[in-house]
Request: fold
Amino acid sequence: MALSRFQRVQKRSFDILLSFVGLTFSLPIIFLAWLVATIETRSNGFFIQKRVGQNAKMINVIKIKTMKPKSQHLGTITTKNDSRITKSGKFFRKTKIDELPQLFNVLIGDMSLVGPRPDVPGYADKLKGEDREILSLRPGITGPATLKYKNEEELLASVKNPKEYNDKVIWPDKVKINKEYIKNWSLKKDIKYIWETVFG
Reply:
């Protein structure tokens, strides 16, 4: 069941307020991370990638570059020991600093603070039937599925075929979790997910 008009306004108002506050405090961190990534990769420290957004509309998601130049465009599954990840990238990914620029995405309305993660084409945009319900929301920086699989890269590194495990086990479970998130949405739960992401 999709969110009501009032719930959508409530969620969007919360996103605007908190993303503005978040950017106010995190801009120095974002700048330093961008500078380090720029120096290490010898390219723009921001990585902008097309992801599937609300209603399957493509959006440009902004992150700190954590992989060697051009390698971020190769493959969609990343494991903990992926050789493409830079030295600073390992730190940025572990601390989630690479995700901070997405606060800009939230502020302009492409994303939400909490919701299904914005995936590369080939996953969310291929959903059918009731599963497409997760496309009714703006994708989020964090959420219940993101928290459950916060060690996803380590998990994928432990299996023989990471892509197959992701496609057959992790992805279907994320869809199920995100459908439950929409069904039982409340602002209080969104605040709880943000708290767990930052301090958990």
